[in-house]
Design brief:
The complex is a heterodimer of chains A (492) and B (457).
Chain A: E1 2-8, H1 17-28, E2 33-40, E3 57-64, H2 79-91, H3 107-112, H4 114-127, H5 134-152, E4 161-164, H6 168-181, E5 185-189, H7 193-203, H8 210-216, H9 221-240, E6 243-246, H10 249-257, E7 265-267, H11 274-283, E8 290-295, H12 304-318, E9 323-328, H13 335-347, E10 354-358, H14 363-366, E11 371-374, H15 383-390, E12 395-398, H16 403-408, H17 413-417, E13 423-426, H18 431-442, H19 445-462, H20 465-481
Helix pairs in contact in A: 2-4, 5-6, 5-9, 6-9, 7-9, 12-18, 15-19
Chain B: H1 6-13, H2 17-48, H3 55-92, H4 99-125, H5 129-154, H6 158-183, H7 185-210, H8 220-227, H9 229-250, E1 256-257, E2 263-264, H10 266-276, H11 280-306, H12 311-345, H13 347-354, H14 358-386, H15 390-414, H16 421-443, H17 445-451
Antiparallel strand pairs in B: 1-2
The chains are: A alpha/beta (492), B mainly alpha (457).
């Protein structure tokens, strides 16, 4: 069995989250050979893998989406006409013409062929509001499309199954494998790629059109364009996928809502190797000081600043010696944000309370943590929550991804067992609410222990790695066996 | 490019006939003032003579000047467009302190090149020492003047150029009366060199007064040359295209040596010299159109891009550039055509007036036709350079040079009555290649402007 696994902006160059999940999946399936296609912004600086190469990884290919691929064979004469047909179709939700596109666009062809210009101006006239700045339109077109052209020129991998770990560019490349080679396609989404991009787009100040949008009290056409492009990639990914996996039910419903055929969607939650945390659980001992920890990267999406602010409120209530807070995770991925966090700790006089530990094995910390905290703005199904639960540590988490499901139980079956809550769910970007939950648990060790036991039982029952491993192996086999029977999944 | 100067713009935009006429006269003097002044000086020497010098000496002097101008134009052509582009880039970035260092680098490079070539020529021709020294100094001075004209031309300081030439020619004339009787031909050449030295000094002092510098040199000139290698070739080919027929004829069977040891071809040079004046009205028109309307439309087009205009506005701006270009070509064709026709009709009269022989009559007619076609080709070439369409400019210049070389070689062998038709054929060939090409690029200017940027961050 040979699987082509396509990861965008994660494995093997980013630790934690999706990267760790991917590494664990590959490691847990030694009987499957993987070719990993990593989509990464640029080759300057050249990215360094953060994970050791596993023996069942046949090859690691890295495609740089922002580096122009000059040397490409010239496309067929009608390639730009096909692109125009595709553009009009995708706006109506029809992803079928994607299969007819040429897989690579030659940059020289793009520069010199009048048909490329005709396509660009036709789309401008058809879709841009009157008076839209054409230079802004051109640069946005280039910014949105050149990465796509680069991705589509990546050499295809002949494999039994192509598995993308998100929609977006990765999903588009996987769909190309399905369209051109007929390779069965599997999509796994941890968070919701399009929704995360959408948040970034609305926050972006480098996208033009804001002044016009304010002047006309309308939406920003260019931001809308970025969103529409990612939604189109999502549609293509869902449309061509033979199976679409989400980590929890809410995301599955979203996927169906966005065009995924319901019978092709399923939930496979994350799982962890319980044995790895058994020793930790047994070694857990009370900390002399109330010890709370956030295991995660020091990056904006984890909202470390809300955690620091919450610690300030708790420390003010318990006294500086009554709280110990640790942020356990890499601090080098967003140096500016990390510097801001350090400055905040100094300004709030929390130097003796909050420690940015850096990248390290979190297990020694799990031995003394009283509460595991997540203040993330977005999550799928955070591994750190599962690890904390496996160790019997209660969780205080924002209501993102499936954190509520992990803490309160899955709808139906799980809740019926009456395992009880494994922690407290809090509001996003609300230090007061996070602090309230931490203070609630600070004075109630029995409740913490009870929540810890509930979490441990929930993980044992629903979130074991061997279950995940079995599910994916079955899925790979089923897709591979059905290769020649299954009809193309492309649908509106 | 900076567009035409404000005084000229004011005159040309006036509805008064007198103001308009003054505008055209001003443009004419701006474009051709130095040329007219130098020609007047030469004519004065021929007609009035110089005490102590024979007519052969004066003809030798004219040959030396002709060779100096030819050599200097060929050498300056190597860096003329590069220096102009480099200076324009500095001015666009409002980097006024770089003007003088750029000029100093250009002038030094020019002096080095002129010195090397003059040294080699003297080594080959072995003229007497006083003549060699005078020729060497004159060639260097002409090189310095050529460098200065590049810079003052870009800065649109035509008044300074004209004033400097007037002063320089006056000094040359005065000194020639003193030096020629005493030192003969070398004295006459030295007087002319002194006049050019004065012109170069005026240029330098003007630049230094207007643009204070913080450093002596500007090595960025060489980076510009490396970034735009085609500019060097375009400049050299353009200058080569102007002189190639004359150089071929100087080495052909109709040439004869002057007393200074330089070969000239009087049967071609005289007719051509006279015919070249016919381009003056078209040259003025080209200057006004290219630096006025065409420049303005071009600036509006890029202003529309910078301001983020919609596609319709950008296309409208492009249409205006195309209209301006077409109008320029049509007006040039009509005006230059009328002048050429008149010159051909009145050719016998002109021959009588200037005392030229029958063969010059044939050359004059062919040269008038050549000037007509070369003028139109020049309009295409300059438009291409103006729009930074260097590939077109390069091909037009190379076609003109190659066809000129072939035409001159063929006509040289065909007979004296056909001399000059090679230049006409070269102009026609450059026009046939360049015009449809630039027309098609202009018709899709916005496409070329945007799409060539694909892949740039």
């Amino acid at each position: 069995m040979h699987v082509c696994l396509i990861a965008e902006g994660s494995y093997p160059y980013i630790t934690g989250g999706v990267g760790k999940w991917t590494h664990d999946l590959i490691a847990s399936l030694p009987e499957v050979e993987f070719t990993v296609v990593a989509l990464w912004p640029t080759d300057r600086p050249e990215p360094q893998p953060r994970y050791p190469t596993l023996p069942n990884v046949r090859e690691l290919r890295t495609s740089y989406v922002l580096t122009p691929q000059e040397e490409q064979p010239r496309g067929p004469k009608d390639q730009f006409e096909k692109l125009e047909v595709f553009h009009h179709a995708i706006k109506k939700g029809d992803v079928c013409p994607f299969a007819g596109l040429n897989s690579g666009v030659n940059l020289k062809d793009l520069k010199s062929n009048p048909a490329a210009w005709k396509l660009l101006t036709t789309l401008y006239q058809d879709y841009a509001p009157p008076g839209t700045s054409f230079p802004d339109y051109f640069w946005t077109w280039q910014a949105t499309h050149l990465p796509l052209f680069n991705v589509l020129t990546s050499p295809l991998v002949a494999a039994d199954v192509v598995h993308c770990i998100s929609t977006g560019y990765a999903g588009c490349l996987a769909a190309l494998h399905k369209a051109k080679l007929g390779t069965p396609m599997l999509t796994t989404e941890h968070g919701l790629y399009t929704r995360e991009r959408s948040q970034e787009i609305w926050d972006a100040d480098w996208i033009p059109g804001e002044a016009e949008a304010n002047a006309h009290r309308s939406g920003n056409f260019f931001k809308g364009w970025w969103n529409r492009m990612f939604r189109s990639l999502e549609r293509i990914t869902y449309g061509y996928s033979d199976a679409v996996v989400s980590l929890f039910e809410a995301n599955r419903k979203y996927q169906i809502g966005q065009g995924s055929a319901p019978e092709r969607t399923l939930v496979i939650p994350n799982g962890i190797e319980l044995g790895l945390y058994e020793t930790v659980r047994r070694s857990r001992r009370p900390s002399p000081t109330y010890h709370v920890g956030l295991v995660g990267r020091v990056v904006p999406i984890k909202d470390i600043k809300t955690f620091i602010n919450a610690c300030k409120i708790v420390a003010d209530r318990l006294g500086p010696s009554g709280l110990k807070a640790s942020v356990i995770g890499p601090i080098d991925e967003d140096p500016l944000y990390a510097a801001q966090c350090r400055e905040m700790i100094r300004a709030l006089q929390l130097e003796n309370v909050v420690t940015l530990v850096g990248k390290t094995d979190p297990r020694p910390y799990y031995e003394t943590l009283d509460v595991s905290v997540l203040t993330s703005l977005s999550e799928g199904q955070p591994m750190v929550a599962l690890e904390s639960m496996a160790c019997g540590i209660p969780i205080v988490s924002t209501d993102v991804g499936c954190c509520r499901e992990l803490i309160d139980g899955r709808p139906g079956e799980d809740q019926g067992y009456g395992l009880g809550p494994a922690g407290i769910v809090t509001a996003l970007v609300d230090p007061q609410d996070t602090a309230r939950a931490l203070l609630e648990l600070a004075g109630d060790p029995d409740r913490r222990a009870e929540m810890g036991r509930a979490g441990r039982r929930r993980v044992e029952k629903y979130y074991r790695l061997d279950q995940v491993r079995r599910s994916y192996l079955d899925l790979y086999r089923r897709l591979s066996d059905g290769r020649h029977q299954s009809a193309p999944a492309a649908a509106a | 490019m900076a567009g035409i100067s404000l005084p000229l713009r004011r005159l040309l935009s006036s509805r008064s006939f007198l103001a308009q006429s003054a505008g055209y006269a001003y443009a004419g003097l701006s474009m051709a003032g130095p040329w007219l002044l130098t020609s007047a000086y030469m004519l004065a020497l021929s007609r009035l003579g110089v005490p102590g010098l024979s007519i052969q000496d004066i003809q030798s002097f004219q040959a030396v000047v002709l060779y100096c101008y030819c050599g200097s134009m060929l050498l300056t052509g190597l860096f003329q467009l590069v220096a102009a582009r480099h200076l324009s880039d500095h001015l666009f970035r409002k980097n006024a302190s770089a003007v003088v260092p750029s000029y100093a680098t250009t002038a030094t490079l020019s002096l080095l090149l002129h010195g090397l070539v003059a040294g080699a020529a003297i080594h080959l021709l072995k003229p007497p020492l006083p003549l060699a020294v005078a020729e060497f100094v004159l060639f260097g001075a002409v090189g310095l003047v050529s460098s200065g004209m590049i810079f003052l031309g870009v800065l649109r300081s035509f008044g300074i150029i004209l004033a400097a030439f007037a002063a320089g020619i006056a000094v040359a004339l005065a000194l020639s009366q003193a030096l020629a009787p005493r030192f003969g031909l070398p004295g006459l050449i030295a007087a002319f060199a002194a006049g050019h030295g004065l012109i170069a000094a005026v240029f330098l002092s003007r630049l230094r007064a207007e643009f204070p510098a913080r450093r002596p040199w500007d090595r960025g000139l060489f980076s510009t040359a490396a970034r735009h290698p085609s500019l060097t070739i375009i400049g050299a080919a353009f200058a080569g295209g102007i002189w190639v027929d004359k150089i071929v004829f100087w080495t052909g069977p109709w040439a004869r040596p002057s007393d200074a040891g330089l070969h000239i071809c009087p049967i071609y040079d005289n007719g051509f010299f006279l015919a070249s004046f016919t381009v003056l009205p078209a040259l003025v028109l080209l200057f006004i159109r290219l630096e006025g309307s065409f420049h303005d439309k071009y600036a509006q087009f890029f202003a529309a891009l910078r301001k983020g205009a919609d596609l319709q506005t950008i296309r409208r701006s492009r249409g205006e550039i195309v209209d301006s270009f077409s109008t320029t070509l049509v007006r040039l064709a009509v005006i230059q055509g009328m002048v050429t026709l008149a010159a051909v009709i009145y050719a016998p009269f002109l021959m009588d007036l200037f005392g030229l022989d029958w063969i010059s009559f044939y050359v004059f007619r062919a040269a008038c036709l050549g000037a007509y076609l070369q003028m139109l080709a020049l309009a295409v070439l300059l438009s291409a350079v103006h729009l930074a369409l260097y590939r077109i400019a390069l091909v037009v210049a190379l076609v003109d040079l190659a066809a000129g070389l072939l035409g001159a070689w063929l006509t040289c062998r065909a007979g004296p009555e056909l001399l000059g038709f090679g230049s006409a054929a070269a102009g026609a060939a450059a026009l046939v290649v360049g015009y449809p090409w630039i027309r098609s690029v202009l018709a899709a200017l916005e496409r070329h402007t945007f799409m060539r940027q694909i892949g740039t961050p």
